[in-house]
Design a protein that fits this description.
CATH topology of the largest domain: Molybdenum Cofactor Biosythetic Enzyme, Chain A
CATH architecture of the largest domain: 3-Layer(aba) Sandwich
CATH superfamily of the largest domain: MoaB/Mog-like domain
Largest sheet: 6 strands, mixed
Radius of gyration: 27 Å
Number of domains: 3
Helix content: 25-40%
Shape: elongated
Oligomer: single chain
Distance between the termini: 45 Å
Length: about 425
């Protein structure tokens, strides 16, 4: 089944709000065999909404529309779509009663009169229950096709997609217990290697199974490799993706660290747990990013002892025991200092594993010898220490994020024996 997505909201086009709904819809629908073939964002304007919905219905016969279902004057999606289907708005007295009870339960006084319009639904439409908000989802069918209207608030949209829309779509597509053709994806996560280098390395591998496509998705943390197969039976799709992974993984070597959505920090924590080691971090230019990423993972306390944010040189001396003479001779961004930081944080927390990072994140502070983006990383396991110098491109935030990723990867590869 092919369908289109129309996201409504002037804020999407002005850049104040990022359209996450289209991405979520695509991820939710693909396993059910529904392909999003086009996405269109339009402002809160009647003509723009009408044209986008009509075009989508003419092309595929089904459109999912998000946004514009609220109680304010700029929420006109329902009115426009009702006009397309020649389905005048009618008051749903049962839903109005539910709305009034909802407001009474919240204890905020009587329901504002403007919310009454949310109980008006196009004639013949099915109301989709929205437990997370006041705007119901709406399923409207006619000769021209099917329009599915959902709130623009992401958490409400996802709840309706999972609880109301997907079950209906599956019922339309499946016959008995036999699954129809589906779309499946698998994402291999890599770090520490550029997109172009990956492409060159993979150019020599044997062809992937027919109908499996490979996409390169570069980001701050690394390059994801997305394998996708469309319009295949469930078992056939899974087998094809497994064959494709088996072809690619030997070439990726230690640059591969897991299957999305796993994070590098989660992989590292698992490796530390398997090795029965605890770790600490010493951070200068990353300012706590490494510790934050580790503590995002449930159970991190099993292996993560803590860290020191030693932004000033006085903190490096006082908290980690970095010799002042080393700082004076080599500067804070140097191999000697990052080595001392890694040893010092392991000593301070009494752990066997530690990482340290110091660098020039910019936009100022660089020199001809140490330009902005110069970063030193160190990882320590027992008595062994590994040091790496990096030049990290990008804005200040990107330098810091890439540095945190690099530090985590450095100790991951040590733990893996690479």
């Amino acid at each position: 089944m092919d369908l289109e997505v129309v996201t409504v909201g002037s804020e999407l086009l002005l850049g104040f709000t990022i359209d996450r709904n289209t991405a979520d819809i695509g991820r939710l629908l693909a396993p059910a065999g529904c392909n999003v073939v086009r996405s269109t964002s339009v402002p809160d304007e009647e003509e723009a909404i009408r044209n986008a919905v009509l075009d989508g219905l003419h092309r595929t016969g089904m459109v999912v529309i998000t946004g514009g279902l609220g109680p304010t004057a700029d929420d006109i999606t329902k009115k426009v779509v009702a006009g397309i289907f020649d389905a005048p708005l009618e008051l749903d007295s049962d839903y109005l009663e539910k709305l009034e009870r909802r407001f009474a339960k919240l204890g905020r006084g009587p329901m504002p009169s403007v919310n009454r319009c949310q109980a008006e639904v196009p004639s013949g439409a099915t109301t989709l229950r929205n437990p997370r908000g006041t705007a119901p989802g709406l399923w409207l069918e006619g000769k021209i096709g099917t329009a599915i209207m959902l709130p623009g608030v992401p958490v409400e949209m996802r709840g309706l997609m999972e609880g109301e829309v997907l079950p209906r779509l599956r019922e339309m597509m499946f016959t008995g217990n036999s699954p129809d053709r589906v779309t499946k994806s698998c994402t291999l996560r890599t770090t520490g290697i550029s997109e172009s280098q990956l492409a060159e390395n993979l150019s020599a591998v044997e062809p992937l199974p027919r109908s499996v496509t490979l996409s390169y998705l570069p980001g701050v943390d690394g390059v994801d490799l997305r394998l996708t197969i469309k319009s295949a039976a469930g078992d056939e799709a899974a087998e094809a993706l497994d064959r494709a992974k088996a072809i690619l993984l030997p070439t990726l070597c230690d640059r591969f660290y897991g299957i999305a959505p796993i994070a590098l920090s989660e992989v590292l924590i698992d490796k530390l747990r398997d090795a029965r080691m605890r770790m600490a971090v010493a951070e200068s230019c990353t300012g706590g990013m490494i510790g934050a990423r580790l503590t995002e993972i449930p159970g991190a306390s099993d292996v993560f002892a803590g860290g020191v944010i030693c932004y000033e040189n006085t903190s490096k001396v006082r908290d980690l025991g970095v010799p002042s003479s080393v700082l004076d001779e080599y500067g804070a961004v140097s191999e000697a200092v990052v080595l001392a930081m890694a040893k010092g944080v392991c000593r301070r927390f009494g752990v066997d594993a530690g990482v340290a990072v110091t660098g020039i994140a910019g936009p100022e502070g660089g020199t001809s010898e140490k330009p902005v983006g110069t970063v030193w990383l160190a990882a320590r396991l027992g008595s062994e220490t590994r040091v790496a110098r990096r030049w990290v491109p990008g804005k200040r935030s990107e330098v810091r994020k890439r540095s945190a990723q690099g530090a985590l990867d450095l100790i991951r590869t040590m733990l893996a024996g690479d």
